[in-house]
């Protein structure tokens, strides 16, 4: 995917805030050492074949279903950090579009959730087993109706079995967000907030634009996307061995799932081309440290917020 534009983030939008001690927030990609350059070059010695790459794409849903069959709810940690870094998720905050809605978005289903009034509508794309939505509910952030979708029907089934799942204020469903399948459940301009956290990287780069275009359609004017994903030259990217690289910055894991590593400007340009305004977007360099287990792992993420213009036509 081409990255256009060379102007600094400082000239385009505010710099991302640092939320953890030791975070380095920057608009500049990591400078690689000679050893790291050699690691990336080594990956090119044996690439995933076109036949294998096509098979991975065709079987993406199957691989994620198998992932959740093996791991169920034991793999990902609950994301209690999201309200700290994305204040839009806090209860009592004004809706992303600036106007509180009195009802949840239209659900084209025989089961209409009943119950208390909600002021905002939220969609978590790639909900997995609910590691974002259930911590929100546990922390008392129930002033919006939550939709949660995932490519894996098994993941959605695990969400529905959770003791906090309640169709009075949430609806989980399986869909492929790269297609128009999501519009079988949700209507255009029906959402205040969409979260896209460690999800776009699992999608084939050729489908990034259709995914973001669908999100633009789903959001109300003034609605926002809350984004975090793997950044270019993250430790996990450098560790891939030959035989795992599918395309530039796009890799196959051992379990058949895939991961893409984003340049900051690439993400900004992707959302701009879909009609969004970039509110903030930066690389975040963060160290995962556990002295007891002698772990000190450098990570790189891209984190941003993107708004559908308030004057956008519905």
From TrEMBL:
GO biological process: methylation
Domain Methyltransferase type: 123-225
Top EC category: transferase
GO molecular function: RNA methyltransferase activity; S-adenosylmethionine-dependent methyltransferase activity
Domain of life per record: Eukaryota
Keywords attached to this entry: Methyltransferase, Transferase
Entry EC no(s): 2.1.1.-
Protein task: S-adenosyl-L-methionine-dependent methyltransferase.
Family of this protein: Belongs to the methyltransferase superfamily. METL family.
Annotated protein name in UniProt: tRNA N(3)-methylcytidine methyltransferase
Source organism per UniProt: Anopheles epiroticus
High-level lineage: Eukaryota, Metazoa, Ecdysozoa, Arthropoda, Hexapoda
């Amino acid at each position: 995917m081409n990255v256009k534009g060379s102007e600094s983030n400082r000239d385009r939008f505010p710099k991302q805030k640092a939320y953890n001690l030791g975070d380095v927030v920057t608009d500049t990609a990591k400078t690689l050492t000679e050893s790291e350059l050699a690691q990336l070059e080594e990956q090119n010695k044996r690439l995933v074949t076109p036949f294998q790459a096509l098979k991975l794409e065709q079987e993406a849903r199957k691989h994620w279903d198998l992932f959740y069959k093996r791991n169920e709810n034991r793999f990902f940690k609950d994301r209690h950090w999201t309200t700290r870094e994305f204040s839009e998720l806090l209860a009592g905050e004004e809706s992303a579009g600036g106007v509180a809605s009195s009802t949840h978005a239209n659900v084209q289903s025989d089961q209409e959730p009943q119950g208390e009034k909600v002021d905002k509508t939220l969609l978590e794309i790639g909900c997995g087993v609910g590691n974002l939505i259930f911590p929100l509910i546990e922390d008392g952030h129930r002033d919006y109706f939550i939709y949660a979708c995932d490519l894996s029907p098994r993941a959605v089934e695990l969400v529905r079995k959770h003791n906090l799942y309640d169709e009075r204020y949430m609806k989980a469903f399986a869909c492929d967000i790269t297609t128009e399948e999501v519009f079988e459940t949700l209507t255009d301009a029906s959402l205040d907030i969409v979260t896209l956290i460690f999800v776009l990287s699992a999608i084939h780069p050729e489908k990034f634009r259709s995914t973001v275009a669908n999100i633009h359609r789903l959001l109300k004017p003034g609605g926002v996307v809350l984004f975090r994903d793997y950044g270019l030259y993250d430790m996990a990217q450098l560790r891939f061995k030959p035989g795992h690289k599918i395309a530039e910055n796009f890799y196959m894991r051992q379990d058949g799932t895939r991961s893409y590593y984003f340049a900051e400007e690439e993400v900004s340009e992707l959302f701009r081309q879909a009609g969004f305004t970039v509110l903030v977007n930066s690389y975040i360099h963060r160290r995962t440290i556990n002295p007891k287990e002698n772990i000190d792992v450098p990570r790189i993420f891209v984190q941003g917020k993107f708004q559908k213009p308030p004057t956008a036509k519905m």
